[in-house]
Specification:
By secondary structure, the chain is mainly beta. Helix content is 1%, strand content 44%.
Length: 374
């Protein structure tokens, strides 16, 4: 069991211009980071920036919840709307969500999107892709529609990530109906594994099991909001929102059940037990947060831009309104730090093609660059 400490000691630091430089530490961390960081605004005036991906060192594609795809330049601060994703609708928490480049984007120019789609008056999550060339998109194709139709406006997921082996993973939510995360005849509360064209891989764990839909890789999730490939181990890591408390980080392994709602460290909104923290046949998180921070977006640091941080994990926080940095020894948490507390809801965190970290503040519509102050 990984225990999360509930209180933090604030370390006084200097400010740089109008930007706060901060470092806040858990009581069990003995080592103060060797440098402070500051956030530099690079693009402003965004409308709920949900997903983002860099094309090159200066240009970033940003998915706004409204359905617009923005091309931004982090060198000049310019931005322009390039594309409105077909079929994407704003409904509750849903809208245009994630955006990713195909691993061979430089050759095939494919860009993938996840979005909320309406079907017969109900709503689900879908995946589409289009070709990007010369600041325009063409040949849009919807390649997958999840089987999780509901009139609920919550818990659509939906992060997408490629494994570099011809597949992508799609993280989904329970659509506000917790029991459905254990119903494997639909996609609610599941991580799916699909081929790059949206079809089912023949080596998925349940392709011959009539009690599971064949796209399912894992089940028992509440609402996946971040996924990343660990650059050291090659494993898929994911985090998800808990109810009131019990947000989790999990190492995702083929065919396993991650427990929701049979096991949780959270409780009902307003109080009341949902379940014990563990349940036979389900996996334990490698870390959890109580109270909730509402994690969103995640990126492993792989560059040398931040001395001593290579391999560390950065996660945005919506309810917690901070940038969260964790380090692990294997799958055991060794330290956790919070930056820029109370300064905005951080929706996504990415590493650019030249190794800098950028994160989006949906409260203020700003894309920030994270810069060390050594």
């Amino acid at each position: 069991m990984r225990i999360f400490f509930l209180y933090f000691i604030s370390i006084t630091v200097s400010s740089f211009g109008c930007e706060k430089i901060s470092s806040e530490k858990q009581p069990n961390n003995d080592t103060i980071p060797s440098f402070e960081v500051q956030k530099i605004p690079v693009i402003t005036g965004l409308n709920i920036p949900w997903g983002m991906v860099f094309i090159n060192d200066s240009l970033v594609l940003i998915a706004e919840k409204s359905g617009d795809v923005i091309l931004g330049n982090v060198y000049t601060g310019s931005k322009e709307v390039l594309f409105k994703v077909p079929n994407a609708v704003v409904y509750g928490q849903g809208g245009l969500m994630d955006i990713r480049l195909h691993p061979f984007f430089n050759q095939n120019k494919l860009v993938y999107f996840t979005y909320t789609k309406q079907v017969s008056g109900l709503y689900t999550t879908a995946v589409g892709r289009a070709i990007y060339e010369n600041k325009s998109f063409k040949n849009f194709q919807e390649i997958f529609v999840a089987e999780m139709l509901s009139n609920s406006g919550v818990h659509f997921g939906s992060r997408l990530i490629f494994d570099g082996k011809g597949h992508f993973y799609l993280g989904l939510g329970d659509r506000g109906n917790m029991q459905q995360s254990q119903n494997t005849k639909n996609h609610m509360g599941c991580i799916l594994r699909l081929q790059e064209d949206g079809s089912v891989p023949s080596d998925n764990p349940f392709v011959t099991n009539p009690d599971f839909l064949p796209e399912i890789w894992t089940n028992g999730h509440r609402n996946i909001q971040g996924m990343a490939i660990n650059p050291i181990t090659g494993e898929l890591w994911a985090h998800e929102h808990g109810p009131q408390g019990g947000d989790e980080i999990n190492v995702i392994k083929k065919g396993l059940n991650y427990g929701w709602p049979l096991a949780t460290y959270g409780q009902q909104y307003g109080g009341g037990k949902i379940a014990d923290p563990s349940y036979p046949g389900t996996e334990q998180p490698i870390h959890y947060w109580t109270p909730s921070i509402a994690p969103c977006g995640m990126a492993f640091i792989t560059s040398n831009r931040y001395p001593g941080w290579s391999g560390h994990l950065l996660i945005g926080a919506l309810a917690g309104q901070h940038l969260n940095k964790t380090s692990f020894q294997g799958s055991t948490l060794s330290s956790e730090w919070r930056y820029f507390q109370g300064e905005g809801r951080i929706r996504n965190v990415v590493e650019s093609t030249d190794g800098w970290i950028y994160f989006s503040d949906e409260s203020n519509g700003i894309l920030y660059k994270l810069v060390p102050k050594i």
